[in-house]
């Protein structure tokens, strides 16, 4: 992968010539204007705290409103594939379980933004999405599966880049426009789920939330994740995500992914299999992160609390922040 600072140079040249809007992963040179903002001990460049108003131009460019993280360091725009009826393992998949594409943004002191995301595409859409990303200068960092034997066949495409925020948003929109992703739906109350949520919470040692009929958990890591000295906030997706879709009578289908360093991978995989949970894929989401993170997607159906107990055993093999 080209280093961030190299690609920023390409971005600036491309945007200067003929008003191009190409974007890519980028960073300023070590001795540049960002030096005053670097972490005094590690030379890290940290995201700035933002408000919804700061992201209004991005929301306009991308054509939908996102959600600001509680700490203000990231802004996430969702692209749920509500247009698709997807089945896997005899289960009709809710968008919030495994079909929730997104693009998340963070701003840095120089005014540039980082974007990371995951686009859910059908096999027929995939080539055009790849072409749009390449035309927009937005790198693909992973193409893989989150489900097994799903119908229709799907692929999940991870993206990452840094540049002018609105240019990034336009590049993302151009790729999403190559799919049949529907426009945003009006917000609805979270409602309830037919699960023993108290038991699941106790098993996982956390508190889940309901989103689109799915009970969800996100666990950030204790590490400081960086891309070429830029600190990546958890809201950009460098986290473990555990999702429970109710199947009735307290049963659930589980899907999501664990964020792991290399030394944690085999322990997590062995623990998942020991709990009867299927391992779907193992891959990276980024090309130049530090520490190097690996992600594994999983699947199982059964009693929700029993599945949560198995997931907790795997979670305890990783350096999560409680």
Note the main attributes of this structure.
six-stranded antiparallel beta sheet; 8 helices; 322 residues; 25% helix; alpha+beta
How would you explain this protein's 3D organization?
This protein is an alpha+beta fold and 322 residues long. It has one domain. The chain contains 8 helices and 17 strands. It has helices at residues 4-16, 56-62, 95-98, 126-135, 165-176, 197-204, 262-274, 304-315; strands at residues 67-68, 75-80, 87-88, 91-92, 100-107, 113-122, 140-144, 154-163, 209-211, 214-220, 226-227, 230-231, 239-248, 251-260, 278-283, 289-290, 294-303. A 6-stranded antiparallel beta sheet has the order 1-2-5-6-8-7. Strands 9-10-13-14-17-15 form a 6-stranded antiparallel beta sheet. Strands 12-11-16 form a 3-stranded antiparallel beta sheet, with no helix packed on it. It starts with a helix and ends in a 7-residue tail after the last helix.
Summarize the helices and strands and which ones pair or pack.
Elements: H1 4-16, H2 56-62, E1 67-68, E2 75-80, E3 87-88, E4 91-92, H3 95-98, E5 100-107, E6 113-122, H4 126-135, E7 140-144, E8 154-163, H5 165-176, H6 197-204, E9 209-211, E10 214-220, E11 226-227, E12 230-231, E13 239-248, E14 251-260, H7 262-274, E15 278-283, E16 289-290, E17 294-303, H8 304-315
Antiparallel strand pairs: 1-2, 2-5, 3-4, 5-6, 6-8, 7-8, 9-10, 10-13, 11-12, 11-16, 13-14, 14-17, 15-17
């Amino acid at each position: 992968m080209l280093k961030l600072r190299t690609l920023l140079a390409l971005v600036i040249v491309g945007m200067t010539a003929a008003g191009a809007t190409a974007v890519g992963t980028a960073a300023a040179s070590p001795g540049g204007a960002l030096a005053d903002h670097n972490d005094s001990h590690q030379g890290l460049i940290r995201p700035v705290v933002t408000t919804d108003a700061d992201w209004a131009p991005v929301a306009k460019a991308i054509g939908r409103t996102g959600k600001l993280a509680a700490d203000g360091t990231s802004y996430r725009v969702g692209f749920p594939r509500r247009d698709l009826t997807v089945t896997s393992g005899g289960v009709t998949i809710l968008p919030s379980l495994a079909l929730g594409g997104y693009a998340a943004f963070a701003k840095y002191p120089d005014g540039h933004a980082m974007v990371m995301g995951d686009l859910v595409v059908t096999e027929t859409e995939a080539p055009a999405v790849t072409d749009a990303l390449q035309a927009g200068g937005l790198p693909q960092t992973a193409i893989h599966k989150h489900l097994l034997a799903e119908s229709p066949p799907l692929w999940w495409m991870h993206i990452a880049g840094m540049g002018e925020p609105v240019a990034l948003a336009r590049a993302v929109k151009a790729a999403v426009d190559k799919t049949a992703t529907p426009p945003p739906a009006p917000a609805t109350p979270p409602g309830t789920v037919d699960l023993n949520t108290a038991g699941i919470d106790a098993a996982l040692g956390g508190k889940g939330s309901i989103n689109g009929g799915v009970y969800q958990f996100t666990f950030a890591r204790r590490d400081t994740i960086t891309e070429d000295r830029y600190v990546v906030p958890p809201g950009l997706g460098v986290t473990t995500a555990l999702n429970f879709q109710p199947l009735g009578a307290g049963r659930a289908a589980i899907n999501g992914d664990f964020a792991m360093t290399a030394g944690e991978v085999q322990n997590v995989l062995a623990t998942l299999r020991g709990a009867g949970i299927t391992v779907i894929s193992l891959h990276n989401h980024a090309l130049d992160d530090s520490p190097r993170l690996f992600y594994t997607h999983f699947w199982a159906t059964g009693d929700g609390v029993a599945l949560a107990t198995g997931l907790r055993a795997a979670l305890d093999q990783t350096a999560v922040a409680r």
